[in-house]
Amino acid sequence: MSQQETHGFQTEVKQLLHLMIHSLYSNKEIFLRELVSNAADAADKLRYEALTNNDLYEGDGELRVRISADKEKGTVTIEDNGIGMTRDGVIEHLGTIAKSGTADFFKNLSGDESKDSQLIGQFGVGFYSAFIVADRVTVRTRAAGHSADEAVLWESAGEGDFTVETISKQTRGTEITLHLREDEKEFADDYRLRSIITKYSDHISVPVEMFEEGTPAVEATEDTEAVPATEGSWKPMNKATALWTRNKSDVSDEEYQEFYKHISHDFADPLLWSHNRVEGKQEYTSLLYIPAKAPWDLWNRDRKHGLKLFVQRVFVMDDAEQFMPSYLRFVQGLIDSNDLPLNVSREILQDNKVTTALRTAVTKRVLGMLEKLAKNDAEKYQSFWTEFGQVLKEGPAEDFANKERVAGLLRFASTHTGEATANVSLADYVERMKEGQSKIYYIVADSHEAAANSPHLEVLRKKDIEVLLMSERIDEWLINHLTEFDGKKLHSVTRGDLELGELEDADEKEAQEKLQTESEGLVKRVKDSLGDKVSEVKVTTRLTDTPACVVAGEGEMSTQMIKLMQAAGQDVPESKPTFELNPEHPLVARLNDEQDEQLFAQWSELLLQQALLSEKGSLADPSAFIKLMNQMLLASVK
User: Fold this and answer.
1) In what order do the strands lie in the sheet with 307-311?
2) 38 assigned to a ligand binding site
3) If both were cysteines, with which of 262, 334, 368, 529 could 308 make a disulfide (CB 3.0 to 4.6 Å apart)?
4) Per-residue confidence (pLDDT) for residue 1, from 0 to 100
């Protein structure tokens, strides 16, 4: 009994359909690439399932995709004999977008069609791209291994809903018929379709076939021999050999780029790629791509990532994250192993020696690609860093074995360039270090401006010592795991002692010691006045133009780490800062001369609050600070 039901599209599907029809108009032909790509995936999935259940082939093991057009009706049909879908599968896959963070994606859309089409390209449109050229789409499908009368008919005009009906279909697989819009009839042309298949689908390992009409018999004449009639037949339009199994020299850049779009559903060309066949102790082929643009959901923790896994050219699984560390989750591509079992599962991959060896090898391969890019094309590497730099910063914490290599790929803003652009490597910094300098100095702050203008840099600026300026949320986390580079320790300019070592000359040291001795009384008075608001008061070695600053004591959490922990909802032990005074500053000299103890206490409090504001960017009680400052201003006016 045929049972027809009408279902409403998920809200996001409606939005996506509307956006695609309007935003992707300039590149309409990609609908065929997306649908052929899906059909090839269905064939791959059947091949894998049939390894353990040969009956799924139903006596037909020749997997293929067939494309046909009907000019009179204005239709294009894409048919495969792959895995097919059940009724539930149809409702799930053709009515919803099963992507985590989808709602967030739609919030990011700007309404500017050219910008949005880029975003949609990163989102991956798949089946719904049919509606770019069609005003009605009909899908007839039957899952492999199910009976003929368990097939399903799905139909929609791409508005708000779709219908699902149980039908009979003798062959397994999926047949999608596009009823083209009046102004898209150009696609109901064999020659047009053939050229698109050749352009986009040459690399697909399943034959993509079109029907070639037969020719009538030609009778013999005096000058020519008789030619027998030929029957029409389905002919493959693509090479139909897995691209990664071919020799590198036989694959063009265009083919590599199209294959990237096939596996990633990205619209842009990749930034770079690496194709390698390894033989010996382990046998595998890897084809790895670095995208040009970060995917929209790169920071979504539920986002699927990883490589496509093939075993002896048989597709096994998508998103095999076991082969790529999390900090390289932007890498796209595949790995084809000869050493893993065909029935491998995610659980088996988890603690498999072959997996570990392959992960190590492909990680090194990606780091090598990036090192080569950084060395040979600084501009291109900078565009990679802009897109993926923050993710790469997770590396030193995650990948101890490659910590130094990852550190070499990191880029930072620096006082040397005076720009906000993060384009200075640790190797650049080490090369420019002053004679006698043994540490790499850095500062972490809430923003680039806060870092660049921090009072903590004053003495270093005076001595022309370079400081790395860090202002991304992940930087404090990074620095906790990256404590040295090239044998040089990384040292925060906001911590305890600046440790300038040989960079201080004897005269400076002597003057500093003299100043400390002369200021002992002032330091004691300020400490007594502030009490337990500070852990210690001392004379500064880092300030030249600012009256005072606060620093984190040895072994204590930095301000940035405290903020990070609090943002994550964790309890942070209370810590009191070390308060450093600059006795040569007029305000501190004025404080030193103040005889009225109440006024002295108010000045000390004001300087402390100023220093805390400068360091943290906010105060626990800003209104109390404003009240105190107004009070002091009024007193000075009198």
Assistant:
1) 272-278, 284-290, 332-337, 307-311, 314-320
2) yes
3) 334
4) 47
Residue 34, annotated ligand binder? Answer: yes
User: Which amino acid, one-letter code, is at 403?
Assistant: K
- How far apart (Å, rounded) are the C-alpha atoms in residues 221 and 484? 88
Q: Is 122 annotated as a binding residue?
A: yes
Annotated binding residue 470: no
Euclidean distance between CA atoms 434 and 441, whole angstroms: 12
Count CB neighbours of 195 within 10 A.
13
Task: Say whether 174 counts as a known binding-site residue.
Answer: yes
Residue 480's contacts (CB-CB under 8 Å, 6 or more residues apart) are 397, 561
- 125 labelled ligand-binding: yes
Determine if residue 617 is labeled as part of a ligand binding site: no
User: Does 99 belong to an annotated binding site?
Assistant: yes
- Was 80 annotated as part of a binding site? yes
pLDDT at site 180: 95
The answer to whether 376 is a known ligand-binding residue is: no
Phi, psi dihedral angles at 290 (to 5 degrees): -105, 120
Annotated ligand binding at 60? The verdict is no
pLDDT digits (tens, 9 = 90+) for 95-106: 766 454 555 655
CA distance 272 to 370: 9
- For 129, 365, 377, the CA distances from 427, given in Å and listed in that order, are 47, 21, 16
Burial class (CB in 10 A: 0-12, 13-18, 19+), 396: buried
DSSP state of 324: S
Q: If you ran DSSP here, which 8-state letter would residue 300 be given? A: -
**126 is known to lie in a ligand binding site:** yes
Here the tokens at position 546 are 């600012």
